[in-house]
Amino acid sequence: MRIERWLYTLPLRLRSLFQRGKVEQELRDELRDHLERQIAANESAGMSPADARTVALRDFGGIERRKDEVRETRGVNLVEQLMRDMAYAARGLRRAPGFTLAVVGTLALGVGANAAMFGIVDRLLFRPPAFLREPGHVHRLYEAFTADRTGATRVNLSYARYRDLAQRSPGSLTVAAFSVMHIAVGDGDAARELPVMAASASYFDLYDAAPALGRYFTSAEDSVPAGAPVAVLGYGYWQSQYGGRRDVIGQRVRVNQTLCTIIGVAPDHFAGVEAGEAPVLYWPLTTRAADARPGAFAANYGWRWPEVLVMRHAGISEATATTELTAALRVSWLTQASANPRNSLAIGAAKPHALLGPVHLQAGPLAGPETRVVTWVTGVAAIVLLIACANVANLLLVRAVSRRREIAMRLALGASRGRLIRQLLTESLLLAALGGIAGVVLAQWGGGAIRALFIRGDFNSPTVADGRTLVVASVATLVAAVLTGLAPAMQALKPDLAHSLRTGARQAGAERSRLRPALLLFQTTLSVVLLIGAGLFVRSLLNVRGMPLGYDIDPLMVITDNTRGVKTSGAELASLEARLAQVATTTPGVVAATPAASVPFWGFDDSPVFVPGIDSLSELGTFGRQAGNADYFRTLGTRIVRGRGFDAHDDAHAPRVAVVSQGMARALWPGQDALGKCIRLDADTMPCTSVVGVAQDVRVRSLKNQREYLYYVPIAQYGDATGMLFVRSSGDASSSVETVRRALQGVMPGNSYVTARPFSAIVDPVMASWRLGATMFVTFGMLALTLAAVGLYSVIAYGVAQRRQEFGVRIALGAGIADVLQLVVGEGVKLGLAGVTLGIVIAIAGGRWIAPLLFDEAPRDMLVFSAVAAALMVAAFCASLFPALRATRVDPVQSLRAD
Question: Which pTM was predicted?
């Protein structure tokens, strides 16, 4: 019965909403017809026309009342009232443009900050990659084991390990491997290192993504020993480099040293599981392996480079999949041990097992500090929204109190309190909706820069078109509407009706409210917490940047040479690199150049070193090898603190010499002079290499690890070409990178090429977490401080305006300017002091949670606490001073006459 009634009334309700004028006319005609029939019936009963009409109207009960009853039966009264309330609210907001802009702007900042941060968190941790077939069933595989009685986990496996897992896993699992690297694409001077994905043929089985053109490569093309020279273009690269031409199929493109035939184009927005820049090209995993290391790579368990994904088929639990993969992994370890027993860990002690983690690397067990920072910053954005809501609630509270007489009048005329609350909430909802729309636009406009900080290469994520982000922004808007509107609405309806009608808006507004100071205290407290966090991250960043790394950064660039298969002997490669260093030094703007075997935070030569009298160096730390020419230390800016560096006499025929870092000297020969000591390179049977110098300590792989040491040997005695050079420019390296690259490219033979990048581009990502934390905490902290100061100013300014009569009386009774200033400024300063106190208490209590993200910085740094307290008190003083100055200019005569 209810369904039949609903089906009957639904069309009428829809017509009442969307064809209101026509339906209202039909209602008037229908009621008029009923009335005229009743009048005619009365006349037939013997009444005069006038009496018949009077009686009919009396019995009918009034036309308007009957209209309301009919509208009520349609069930659209609530919607019509809401539309009228929205129109009424819009008219009221148009009459107060300053108030409207302040509220909308404040909410836009809060909602926009949350929309932008959610887009980043969602992209890094939650959102399934585009086209992924079964997002809930796809996992990233980790290899966990025990080494030196310490648990270890790694995500990069060897191709041999991947093949063992793929062959020994049951058919209920799909195992795929991939690796994204920057590899040269193109020929000659046009060659550029671009993101290229090497993938197994099974990788594309994880996705429901048909190629935009052509096909993907098959398992036959991704097979040992060398794969097939085929490639699938990325959609964006196809558009930008090939103009989207369909005849691209069959053309050839050189990838590193392999000339590949283009067989397909990936669909638009296909980027795999990695966030950030999409690969420009996809080629078979075995083709990439054979290109990089021709030979028996399929049996090499030590070369770990691809990552592995696993998809569980229907009916297979995660626990079952983990068990199956662990069994396959243990068999693979046994295979490795039988092939290379000397360099393999015992399986009983290592206890290898598989871990299935989320498909997003940043959500797994090897997530870096940037993930923790982005989580914290997301919480900070939520706090900014709360501060914005408190600010807007205070403004709406002030507005509601000023309208108290209007509300009292409407209550006296018969309006219900519920009806008025709904109207006030409608105004809040309208303001929040405007703020939400502006916030989403703000997130799209400014969010790209924020996203670029967290996700490299991601400048153009469609925030406005992203449904998930829009849902979050809508929820944030709704929460803001409720938080900002409910308290002011209840406060406005609380007073006595007769008292409000008698006192009027001005006197009612002068009444004190406990809610407004509480909201201001809330804002101030949260602002202090955010500013303290900002100060701690800024200090951490300063500590990182001020830390002595043992080399310069800004004037250096790193050159890598790739011969791309050009047939050259080891001696010829060494000669080529010496020639490159010579040409670099003659390039305008270059001070010095040297080949190098290691690049800090990028390439690390950890060939074994042995010291007579010491059984195990691994217990003392990690030791890396560096090689360079006579200009090495001048190029890098590394100081020699004892002895000497290299010179032109340290060639292949001279006695073997080395320079060690200060930390290495202390670790190996504590309390002794390192000069003249013996170290043996590569094997303990090799001749002694004599230490001739001690260099300052350097950081090579970690900023926090104090047990990383570097030793240096002359490039002529290194025994191999390095493939890398350091070049020192007279100014910032980024301005001369292209000039140096072009000069060196002319030296390279055939299709070989060089790549040049500023050294800062390698070192800066190591500092990323502290830079991100400092940038975002400072941004949101200053935003919170601004909102708190504006909120304090607006409330105090309104209070001064409402208390003009009081100040006039005080001045008339002899109060001086200092007295009025003290009265008004004192209120703001007291609120600021209370907020500072509570904020510091909260920051101290929560310091242990943020401590792991800091660098050489105590979470209870009194300098930071004092600076934040001073800044907040200055803001509170300034926010109170200007309204106070207005209060001192009140004319007592006009104030008394106005009463």
Answer: 0.75
